[in-house]
Amino acid sequence: MKRFVSISLRLLISGVLLVLLFREHDLIADIVPRLRALLTNWPWTLAGVSFAFLSLFLTAVRWHIILRGQVPELPFHVVLRTEIISAFFNISSVGVVGGDTYKIMSLSRRLPGQTMTVSVSLVLDHLTGLISVAFLFSVCMLARASHWNEIGHDLRMLITGYAMYVGGAIVGLVISWFSFKPSLLAWGRRAFPRTMGNPRLAGLIARLTKVHDIAALLWRRTLSASVVSIGMHTAFFMSFYCGLQAVGGAAPVLDVLTAMPIVDAAASLPVSISGLGVRERTFEALLAGLANVPEAVGVSASLAGWMFSLFWGIVGGVMFLRAKHAAIIPPEAQCA
Fold first, then answer.
1. SS3 of residue 193 by DSSP
2. Is 239 a domain residue?
3. In angstroms, rounded to a whole number, what is the distance separating the alpha carbons of residues 185 and 192?
4. Is residue 26 part of a domain?
5. Taking all residues of the chain, what is their mean pLDDT, rounded to a whole number?
6. Helical residues (DSSP H) of 192-276, grouped into ranges
7. Residue 139: what pLDDT?
8. CA 58 – CA 53 distance, rounded (Å)
9. Is it the case that residue 186 has pLDDT exceeding 60?
Protein backbone atom coordinates (compact mmCIF):
# COMPACT_ATOMS: atom_id res chain seq x y z
CA MET A 1 0.00 0.00 0.00
CA LYS A 2 2.84 2.41 0.89
CA ARG A 3 4.55 1.63 -2.42
CA PHE A 4 1.31 2.29 -4.33
CA VAL A 5 0.87 5.64 -2.54
CA SER A 6 4.50 6.60 -3.26
CA ILE A 7 4.16 5.78 -6.97
CA SER A 8 0.83 7.61 -7.19
CA LEU A 9 2.29 10.73 -5.55
CA ARG A 10 5.26 10.76 -7.92
CA LEU A 11 2.99 10.39 -10.94
CA LEU A 12 0.78 13.17 -9.61
CA ILE A 13 3.69 15.55 -8.93
CA SER A 14 5.26 14.95 -12.35
CA GLY A 15 1.89 15.36 -14.04
CA VAL A 16 1.05 18.58 -12.21
CA LEU A 17 4.49 20.11 -12.88
CA LEU A 18 4.34 19.26 -16.58
CA VAL A 19 0.79 20.59 -16.92
CA LEU A 20 1.83 23.85 -15.26
CA LEU A 21 4.90 24.11 -17.49
CA PHE A 22 2.90 23.49 -20.65
CA ARG A 23 0.25 25.97 -19.58
CA GLU A 24 2.90 28.60 -18.98
CA HIS A 25 4.77 27.73 -22.19
CA ASP A 26 2.32 26.50 -24.81
CA LEU A 27 3.28 22.92 -25.73
CA ILE A 28 2.24 23.23 -29.36
CA ALA A 29 3.40 26.79 -30.02
CA ASP A 30 6.51 27.06 -27.81
CA ILE A 31 7.91 23.58 -27.10
CA VAL A 32 7.13 21.26 -30.03
CA PRO A 33 8.68 23.51 -32.74
CA ARG A 34 11.92 23.66 -30.75
CA LEU A 35 11.96 19.89 -30.25
CA ARG A 36 11.43 19.46 -33.99
CA ALA A 37 14.61 21.46 -34.43
CA LEU A 38 16.46 18.40 -33.08
CA LEU A 39 16.12 16.96 -36.60
CA THR A 40 17.25 20.15 -38.31
CA ASN A 41 20.19 20.66 -35.96
CA TRP A 42 21.12 17.00 -36.19
CA PRO A 43 24.89 17.52 -35.58
CA TRP A 44 24.10 18.89 -32.11
CA THR A 45 21.57 16.11 -31.56
CA LEU A 46 24.13 13.49 -32.54
CA ALA A 47 26.67 15.14 -30.24
CA GLY A 48 24.15 15.08 -27.37
CA VAL A 49 23.41 11.38 -27.88
CA SER A 50 27.16 10.70 -28.05
CA PHE A 51 27.87 12.61 -24.84
CA ALA A 52 25.04 10.69 -23.13
CA PHE A 53 26.68 7.40 -24.17
CA LEU A 54 30.12 8.65 -23.11
CA SER A 55 28.63 9.40 -19.70
CA LEU A 56 27.27 5.84 -19.47
CA PHE A 57 30.59 4.41 -20.65
CA LEU A 58 32.59 6.35 -18.06
CA THR A 59 30.08 5.40 -15.36
CA ALA A 60 30.82 1.76 -16.20
CA VAL A 61 34.59 2.47 -16.15
CA ARG A 62 34.26 4.13 -12.74
CA TRP A 63 32.32 1.23 -11.24
CA HIS A 64 34.58 -1.37 -12.86
CA ILE A 65 37.67 0.24 -11.33
CA ILE A 66 36.19 -0.27 -7.86
CA LEU A 67 34.78 -3.72 -8.58
CA ARG A 68 38.09 -5.01 -9.91
CA GLY A 69 39.61 -4.49 -6.49
CA GLN A 70 37.34 -7.22 -5.11
CA VAL A 71 36.41 -9.21 -8.23
CA PRO A 72 39.46 -9.12 -10.52
CA GLU A 73 37.97 -11.68 -12.92
CA LEU A 74 34.97 -9.51 -13.80
CA PRO A 75 35.14 -8.43 -17.50
CA PHE A 76 34.47 -4.80 -18.37
CA HIS A 77 31.90 -5.64 -21.03
CA VAL A 78 29.69 -7.21 -18.35
CA VAL A 79 29.77 -4.01 -16.28
CA LEU A 80 29.12 -1.85 -19.35
CA ARG A 81 26.15 -4.00 -20.39
CA THR A 82 24.76 -3.85 -16.85
CA GLU A 83 25.18 -0.07 -16.80
CA ILE A 84 23.35 0.43 -20.10
CA ILE A 85 20.48 -1.83 -19.04
CA SER A 86 20.26 -0.03 -15.69
CA ALA A 87 19.69 3.19 -17.68
CA PHE A 88 16.39 1.64 -18.79
CA PHE A 89 15.30 1.14 -15.19
CA ASN A 90 16.48 4.63 -14.24
CA ILE A 91 14.22 6.25 -16.83
CA SER A 92 11.31 3.78 -16.55
CA SER A 93 11.22 3.15 -12.82
CA VAL A 94 8.23 4.50 -10.91
CA GLY A 95 9.60 3.54 -7.53
CA VAL A 96 9.53 -0.26 -7.64
CA VAL A 97 12.80 -1.09 -9.38
CA GLY A 98 15.61 1.36 -10.04
CA GLY A 99 18.95 1.20 -11.78
CA ASP A 100 20.91 0.38 -8.61
CA THR A 101 18.54 -2.45 -7.75
CA TYR A 102 19.01 -3.94 -11.19
CA LYS A 103 22.80 -3.62 -10.91
CA ILE A 104 22.87 -5.48 -7.61
CA MET A 105 20.52 -8.20 -8.82
CA SER A 106 22.29 -8.63 -12.15
CA LEU A 107 25.85 -8.88 -10.86
CA SER A 108 24.80 -10.94 -7.85
CA ARG A 109 23.54 -13.58 -10.28
CA ARG A 110 26.85 -13.54 -12.10
CA LEU A 111 28.85 -13.42 -8.87
CA PRO A 112 27.18 -15.90 -6.50
CA GLY A 113 27.73 -15.13 -2.84
CA GLN A 114 29.12 -11.64 -3.47
CA THR A 115 25.99 -9.53 -3.10
CA MET A 116 27.58 -7.57 -0.25
CA THR A 117 30.66 -6.86 -2.38
CA VAL A 118 28.51 -5.55 -5.23
CA SER A 119 26.41 -3.42 -2.87
CA VAL A 120 29.45 -1.89 -1.18
CA SER A 121 31.06 -1.18 -4.55
CA LEU A 122 27.92 0.76 -5.53
CA VAL A 123 28.12 2.81 -2.33
CA LEU A 124 31.73 3.71 -3.09
CA ASP A 125 30.74 4.40 -6.70
CA HIS A 126 28.15 6.96 -5.58
CA LEU A 127 30.58 8.52 -3.12
CA THR A 128 33.06 9.15 -5.93
CA GLY A 129 30.20 10.80 -7.80
CA LEU A 130 29.58 13.15 -4.88
CA ILE A 131 33.25 14.09 -4.71
CA SER A 132 33.51 14.76 -8.45
CA VAL A 133 30.32 16.85 -8.56
CA ALA A 134 31.55 18.93 -5.62
CA PHE A 135 34.86 19.46 -7.44
CA LEU A 136 33.20 20.45 -10.73
CA PHE A 137 30.76 22.81 -9.02
CA SER A 138 33.58 24.46 -7.06
CA VAL A 139 35.67 24.98 -10.19
CA CYS A 140 32.70 26.49 -12.07
CA MET A 141 31.81 28.81 -9.19
CA LEU A 142 35.42 29.98 -8.88
CA ALA A 143 35.48 30.67 -12.62
CA ARG A 144 32.26 32.70 -12.28
CA ALA A 145 33.21 34.45 -9.02
CA SER A 146 33.62 37.86 -10.69
CA HIS A 147 30.01 37.67 -11.98
CA TRP A 148 28.43 36.73 -8.65
CA ASN A 149 26.84 40.14 -8.06
CA GLU A 150 25.17 40.01 -11.49
CA ILE A 151 23.02 37.08 -10.42
CA GLY A 152 19.57 37.75 -8.98
CA HIS A 153 18.92 37.37 -5.25
CA ASP A 154 16.69 34.29 -5.57
CA LEU A 155 19.20 32.53 -7.77
CA ARG A 156 22.04 33.36 -5.39
CA MET A 157 20.01 31.81 -2.57
CA LEU A 158 19.46 28.65 -4.63
CA ILE A 159 23.14 28.33 -5.52
CA THR A 160 24.18 29.04 -1.93
CA GLY A 161 21.74 26.42 -0.65
CA TYR A 162 23.15 23.83 -3.04
CA ALA A 163 26.71 24.74 -2.07
CA MET A 164 25.81 24.25 1.60
CA TYR A 165 24.18 20.91 0.77
CA VAL A 166 27.22 19.62 -1.13
CA GLY A 167 29.65 21.05 1.41
CA GLY A 168 27.70 19.47 4.25
CA ALA A 169 27.70 16.14 2.45
CA ILE A 170 31.48 16.25 2.00
CA VAL A 171 31.99 17.22 5.66
CA GLY A 172 29.66 14.40 6.69
CA LEU A 173 31.64 12.01 4.51
CA VAL A 174 34.90 13.01 6.19
CA ILE A 175 33.38 12.70 9.68
CA SER A 176 31.95 9.29 8.79
CA TRP A 177 35.34 8.15 7.56
CA PHE A 178 36.96 8.84 10.92
CA SER A 179 33.89 7.74 12.92
CA PHE A 180 33.99 4.20 11.56
CA LYS A 181 37.62 3.51 12.23
CA PRO A 182 37.87 0.19 14.15
CA SER A 183 39.69 1.78 17.10
CA LEU A 184 37.00 4.46 17.54
CA LEU A 185 34.18 1.92 17.25
CA ALA A 186 35.84 -0.28 19.87
CA TRP A 187 35.97 2.69 22.23
CA GLY A 188 32.29 3.45 21.50
CA ARG A 189 31.25 -0.11 22.40
CA ARG A 190 33.07 0.16 25.70
CA ALA A 191 31.78 3.63 26.52
CA PHE A 192 28.16 3.17 25.32
CA PRO A 193 27.39 -0.56 25.50
CA ARG A 194 23.59 -0.15 25.45
CA THR A 195 23.45 2.25 22.52
CA MET A 196 26.14 0.57 20.44
CA GLY A 197 24.68 -2.82 21.29
CA ASN A 198 21.23 -2.02 19.88
CA PRO A 199 20.57 -4.69 17.19
CA ARG A 200 19.39 -2.22 14.55
CA LEU A 201 22.23 0.21 15.16
CA ALA A 202 24.75 -2.63 15.32
CA GLY A 203 23.62 -3.88 11.91
CA LEU A 204 23.93 -0.42 10.38
CA ILE A 205 27.35 0.11 11.94
CA ALA A 206 28.50 -3.27 10.63
CA ARG A 207 27.50 -2.35 7.07
CA LEU A 208 29.11 1.09 7.26
CA THR A 209 32.25 -0.45 8.75
CA LYS A 210 32.37 -2.80 5.79
CA VAL A 211 32.25 0.20 3.45
CA HIS A 212 35.00 1.90 5.46
CA ASP A 213 37.25 -1.19 5.40
CA ILE A 214 36.86 -1.71 1.65
CA ALA A 215 37.39 1.99 0.95
CA ALA A 216 40.56 1.90 3.06
CA LEU A 217 41.72 -1.16 1.12
CA LEU A 218 40.83 0.31 -2.25
CA TRP A 219 41.66 3.98 -1.67
CA ARG A 220 43.85 4.17 -4.79
CA ARG A 221 41.06 2.71 -6.90
CA THR A 222 38.53 5.02 -5.27
CA LEU A 223 40.74 8.01 -6.10
CA SER A 224 41.10 6.84 -9.71
CA ALA A 225 37.33 6.33 -9.93
CA SER A 226 36.81 9.89 -8.67
CA VAL A 227 38.96 11.24 -11.50
CA VAL A 228 36.98 9.20 -14.05
CA SER A 229 33.80 10.46 -12.40
CA ILE A 230 34.76 14.06 -13.21
CA GLY A 231 34.82 13.14 -16.90
CA MET A 232 31.57 11.20 -16.55
CA HIS A 233 29.66 14.11 -15.04
CA THR A 234 31.17 16.56 -17.51
CA ALA A 235 29.98 14.37 -20.41
CA PHE A 236 26.49 14.10 -18.93
CA PHE A 237 26.25 17.86 -18.40
CA MET A 238 27.55 18.48 -21.93
CA SER A 239 24.68 16.42 -23.33
CA PHE A 240 22.33 19.10 -21.98
CA TYR A 241 24.51 21.83 -23.51
CA CYS A 242 24.13 20.06 -26.84
CA GLY A 243 20.39 19.86 -26.19
CA LEU A 244 20.31 23.63 -25.67
CA GLN A 245 22.13 24.21 -28.95
CA ALA A 246 19.95 21.67 -30.77
CA VAL A 247 16.71 23.47 -29.84
CA GLY A 248 18.09 26.79 -31.05
CA GLY A 249 19.27 28.20 -27.72
CA ALA A 250 22.65 29.56 -26.75
CA ALA A 251 24.57 29.98 -23.50
CA PRO A 252 28.21 29.80 -22.43
CA VAL A 253 29.37 26.26 -21.63
CA LEU A 254 30.46 27.45 -18.18
CA ASP A 255 26.94 28.60 -17.33
CA VAL A 256 25.47 25.23 -18.29
CA LEU A 257 28.14 23.36 -16.32
CA THR A 258 27.41 25.59 -13.32
CA ALA A 259 23.68 24.96 -13.50
CA MET A 260 23.71 21.21 -14.17
CA PRO A 261 24.90 19.95 -10.74
CA ILE A 262 21.91 21.71 -9.17
CA VAL A 263 19.56 20.51 -11.91
CA ASP A 264 20.79 16.94 -11.54
CA ALA A 265 20.39 17.04 -7.76
CA ALA A 266 16.83 18.35 -8.08
CA ALA A 267 15.94 15.71 -10.68
CA SER A 268 17.33 12.99 -8.39
CA LEU A 269 14.93 13.84 -5.57
CA PRO A 270 12.39 10.99 -5.11
CA VAL A 271 9.40 13.23 -5.75
CA SER A 272 8.74 12.66 -9.45
CA ILE A 273 9.05 10.10 -12.23
CA SER A 274 12.53 10.21 -13.79
CA GLY A 275 12.83 13.82 -12.60
CA LEU A 276 10.24 15.00 -15.13
CA GLY A 277 8.90 18.43 -14.31
CA VAL A 278 11.42 19.08 -11.55
CA ARG A 279 14.36 18.97 -13.96
CA GLU A 280 12.69 21.24 -16.50
CA ARG A 281 11.62 23.85 -13.96
CA THR A 282 15.08 23.96 -12.33
CA PHE A 283 16.93 24.09 -15.65
CA GLU A 284 14.60 26.83 -16.87
CA ALA A 285 15.15 29.00 -13.78
CA LEU A 286 18.93 28.57 -13.65
CA LEU A 287 19.64 29.17 -17.34
CA ALA A 288 17.33 32.19 -17.37
CA GLY A 289 19.14 33.67 -14.36
CA LEU A 290 22.70 32.78 -15.39
CA ALA A 291 22.62 33.32 -19.15
CA ASN A 292 19.29 35.05 -19.92
CA VAL A 293 18.08 32.00 -21.85
CA PRO A 294 14.36 32.38 -22.71
CA GLU A 295 12.32 30.21 -20.37
CA ALA A 296 10.60 28.20 -23.12
CA VAL A 297 14.01 27.48 -24.65
CA GLY A 298 15.29 26.28 -21.26
CA VAL A 299 12.36 23.88 -20.86
CA SER A 300 12.85 22.57 -24.42
CA ALA A 301 16.59 22.12 -23.85
CA SER A 302 15.99 20.19 -20.64
CA LEU A 303 13.54 17.88 -22.41
CA ALA A 304 16.06 17.41 -25.24
CA GLY A 305 18.84 16.49 -22.78
CA TRP A 306 16.50 14.02 -21.09
CA MET A 307 15.60 12.52 -24.49
CA PHE A 308 19.28 11.85 -25.21
CA SER A 309 19.47 9.74 -22.03
CA LEU A 310 16.06 8.26 -22.85
CA PHE A 311 17.49 6.98 -26.14
CA TRP A 312 20.11 4.91 -24.32
CA GLY A 313 17.50 3.83 -21.79
CA ILE A 314 15.45 2.37 -24.65
CA VAL A 315 18.59 0.65 -25.98
CA GLY A 316 19.10 -0.76 -22.48
CA GLY A 317 15.50 -1.97 -22.42
CA VAL A 318 16.01 -3.86 -25.69
CA MET A 319 19.23 -5.37 -24.31
CA PHE A 320 17.41 -6.38 -21.13
CA LEU A 321 14.72 -8.24 -23.07
CA ARG A 322 17.43 -10.17 -24.89
CA ALA A 323 19.74 -10.64 -21.89
CA LYS A 324 20.87 -14.05 -20.74
CA HIS A 325 22.14 -14.02 -17.18
CA ALA A 326 25.01 -16.43 -16.67
CA ALA A 327 27.12 -16.61 -13.51
CA ILE A 328 30.84 -15.92 -13.83
CA ILE A 329 32.70 -19.03 -12.79
CA PRO A 330 36.04 -18.29 -11.12
CA PRO A 331 39.07 -19.80 -12.90
CA GLU A 332 39.78 -22.14 -9.92
CA ALA A 333 36.30 -23.64 -10.19
CA GLN A 334 36.70 -24.11 -13.96
CA CYS A 335 39.98 -25.98 -13.42
CA ALA A 336 38.39 -28.15 -10.76
1. helix
2. yes
3. 10
4. no
5. 85
6. 193-196, 199-217, 219-246, 253-268
7. 95
8. 9
9. yes
